[in-house]
Amino acid sequence: MPQLIYEFNSPKGVLKNRNISNSSRLVLEEAKKFGVVCQIIPCTQLIELTYKGKKQTFYHQVPFSTSALAKYSCNNKKVTTNLLYSCGISVPKGYRVRKTSSDKYLLSIYENLQKPLVAKPSDGTWGENVTVGITDFDKYLEAVDLALEYSGKKKPTAIVEEMFKGHEYRILVTRKKVIGVLYRRPASVVGNGVDSIKKLIQEENKNPIRGVKNGTTSHFKIRMDERMLRLLKENNMNFYSIPQKGKRIYLRRVSNVSQGGAAIDFTDKVHSSVKKIALKAINAVPGLSFAGIDFLSKDITKKQTQDSYIIIEINDSPGFDIHDFPYEGENRHAAREFLFLMFPELKK
After folding, report:
1. CA separation, residue 290 to residues 45, 59, 64, 234 (Å)
2. Domain containing 134 — which CATH number?
3. Are residues 158 and 217 in the same domain?
4. Which of 39, 88, 152, 337 is the most buried (most CB within 10 A)?
5. Does some domain include residue 302?
């Protein structure tokens, strides 16, 4: 199925707006297999599905069954962590800051938290404007400013929290079922002893699983930029360094596929306690029916304890094409599960 496009009204008539997300496109492909009729409601970003006279609507990756209260809770990361903490789920210690926060308040946060730190927008997505591994006060202030720049709100806020040392995973879940678990590996290349890092990146970007934003692939191409170069320099390398054969060179500190990361299916390897925690987490958010949970663990294959994991975020509109088309591993048919959430009768 080709990419579909939302439209909008203008004085010049109906014009093209933007492509629907790749995850939404996959839902429409699944719907077609089951005889479900689909249409984008004109000049909106709402998609209506009809099956045997029954109509259901979704927006991006948000089904009709997710409430406004759930969206509010997930769009404010501090509200999410407070809800999880109240249910006994491990979350990072942190505080919210504003553009109007005083120098004294910013200093008190820095002194109160154990380093290294993470600074991120309260309402951020795609891993944008996130800084990790902060140990220096000046870098901390720069990271807070960067996080506050992300939001288009009149009164943007950011979160500063303690950094948890562990591997990062994305858990896709409904209120009753864990659909899939992915290990999110930061953008990286593996040396062959011949090619430079720049050349290795260029070769990796030829992988057909990688594409561009608003495209039809589950992973993004690796972008070379100043932040990547700074990370390489910290490890005494640059884009023209030649890594030894078999050595993996990490190019980002964040693991998002939008930043060139790789999503590797881990569903069958996780300990059963992980799935119990994930189900407890989604049910801690009132009205949330479908979510992506960002889960950090020291060892996800073992029983989780209060100090062996944390949940850093819950996304009410998770991109799930990475579960259907992981960089490595099994297709978990997340688009089909999303369709079943709206039409349970299709399971039969």
Report:
1. 19, 12, 10, 39
2. 3.30.1490.20
3. no
4. 337
5. no
Q: Is residue 347 part of a domain?
A: no
Query: Which stretches of 113-209 are DSSP H helices?
Result: 137-150, 197-204
Task: Check whether residue 156 and residue 211 sit in a common domain.
Answer: no
Please state, in angstroms and rounded to a whole number, the distance separating the CA atoms of residues 233 and 185.
Answer: 20
Number of domains the chain is built from: 3
Confidence of residue 11 (pLDDT cuts 50, 70, 90): confident
**Residue ending a domain, choose from 65, 84, 101:** 65
Structural domain harbouring 15: 5-65
Confidence of residue 212 (pLDDT cuts 50, 70, 90): confident
Angstrom distance (rounded) from CA 66 to CA 288: 5
Strands 290-297 and 167-174: antiparallel
What is the C-alpha to C-alpha distance for residues 21 and 61, in angstroms, rounded to an integer? 8
Reading the block at residue 140, the tokens are 């901390």
Specify if 10 maps to a domain: yes
Quote the CA–CA distance of 120 and 147 in Å, as a whole number.
5
Does residue 315 form part of some domain? no
Q: How far is CA 289 from the centre of its chain?
A: 17
- Cα–Cα dist 339/65, whole Å: 12
Buried residues in 105-143 as b, exposed as e (16+ CB within 10 A): ebeebbeebeeebbbbbbbbeebbbbbbebeeeeebbeb
Residue 48 DSSP SS3? strand
Check: CB of residue 147 under 8 Å from CB of residue 78: no
* Whole-angstrom distance, CA of residue 201 vs CA of residue 51: 45
**Rounded Cα distance, 273 and 291, in Å:** 18
| pTM beyond cutoff 0.85 | yes
**pLDDT tens for residues 197-206?**
999 999 999 9
Provide the strand spans (E) within the chain.
5-10, 13-19, 37-40, 46-51, 54-59, 62-63, 94-98, 117-121, 131-134, 157-162, 167-174, 178-185, 188-190, 210-211, 219-220, 248-250, 262-265, 290-297, 309-315
Tokens of 218: 């589950």
Of residues 15 and 245, more confidence is placed in: 245
Distance of alpha carbon 73 from alpha carbon 68, whole angstroms:
9
